[in-house]
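Minutes, methods subgroup
Present: GH (chair), OT, SY

1. OT presented the first of two proteins processed in the latest run. Sequence and structure tokens recorded below as shown on screen.
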Amino acid sequence: MSEQSREPGWYQDPFGTGPEDRRYWDGDTWLAVQQTQPAAFQAPGAPQQPQPVQPEPQQGHGAHPSEQQEGWPDQSRGLGWGQPASPDDRIRTPDGVELATWGRRFGAYVVDWIVIQLTTLVIAGALGLIAAADEAFAPLLSGDAAADPTAASAAIDEAYVGFLTQHSGELIALSFLTLAASGAYHVVLVALRGRTLGKRLLGIRVRLRDREGLPIWRAALSRWLLHYAMPNLLAGVPGLGIVAGMFPIVDGLWPLWDARRQAIHDKLAKTAVVRG
């Protein structure tokens, strides 16, 4: 039976670790709540099921309940840099949702990069920069100009400096409009949908790390500011340009070795990228 034709209900968890794990299928997607006893979670629209009586856990010597049951610190205490991580934290979230692989995250990043570059071309065309660049450089790149490479190179350098001087206002506007478009694309889609176009195509989404739910606007904004906006704004600052240029690379590679498969911007926003 395909998932598209599957009736809503509890089924064996495709991401679980044992046959007793169950996850609720709502007819469209797997809900991000894993239970060993399905009746412990009442999904929207699901038929009422009797609730089993759970015995009170025995706590002794002042131990924390989560430490007695799992052997790891309670996830509700926070997910900071100093919090110990279990081996399972690199595979799934605390509530059992499978984390996205780095390859899928990279693929989504490439798709989103292409979207932003196409948007930049549209903005540049609207500002008249494409037509101006063609007018300034096309004659210099013709076959006649290539006959004398030294003179052609000097002419191109002169035309480039003249282009920057003549169209400095439009170029500054292009930078800020592209940055604004990037912010609208990443922040709005992540806050409202949990995914950009690239993430949707690669079958991944952004959610809160320790529980199901979309990132709040502040979290979506902080992800974009740290990974996209700040490096672009600081790239031209003397002494910070190299660091600003390297940070997105380090941030993008961070899930490869992080104990919870989070990038640095995920840690700041307390989010995770998962399958689904």
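2. SY then presented the second protein from the same run.
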Amino acid sequence: MINLDRSPGRLEWFMGQVAHMDLDVVRVSAVDAKRIPEQDVERLRQLSSGVNSMSPAEIACLQSHRKAWQMIADGDDEWGFVAEDDIHLSADAANFFKSDRWIPANAEVIRAETDLGRAELSYRNWGKPLGHELRQLKSAQLGAAGYFLSKMTAVRVLEHTSRHVEPADVILFSSIGGLLTEMQVLQMLPALCVQDMWAPGGALGGPLTSQIDDDRRRFHRHDPRSARRKGTAKLVYEVARIGRQFAKPFRMAMLVAVGRSVFKRVEIETLVNAGPLPSGRAS
């Protein structure tokens, strides 16, 4: 579980959720964007494709996930679960942490979270352990707050991110700058966890909201190294985006008709009651 040293309230809140689950929770001390030397930020930014703006907070987030990946790679278990400290867990999540026997052979990553949006998924259902479908993820999804990662895949993504620096969710769950189409990535339906900002009663700016989004917006607005499209490039992109949106319903219908994909909203069921949220806000 990834947690900043200066966010003990979030750690206490998270541990309150899992207190009854009989889990061996390992805390990963998150890399603090405020403590990364500027020269290291610049060195790592040079390894980015430029498609994604790698702000200091984004780089720190990736490095924090890499610490978790290293623990899985060095550990004895074949699978590990990586969690950020702002996720709400479903009431049946503990059933999936007791063993990895429910995981299909050849799976490499299992995305257990949702932002409650719709995803393109394989027509084939890889299994339905304890009532949760497992389908191959085919569309890019934002967020890397809760996922299962195999030991072999941890080694692979560590090696990849030693040469390619992109946001952690892009590396795992996008084909543009990431490895989505090169790995067997499955999505759980219903999901096992959801970040606070998407949970019932949650909101941006709440006590579990980190400032990575604020940092990203400031970086886009004020830093010339931002990858945000401007001027003609932005106009061309927006025109193309409108064309893609117009064609999207026809593409979806065709893929469903030929049995290639299904398009489903990834829901989540009853959440654990973790008690009151921590006071204040992470920075």
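Chair's summary of item 2: Residues 231-257 form the longest helix (27 residues).
Next meeting: continue with the remaining queue.
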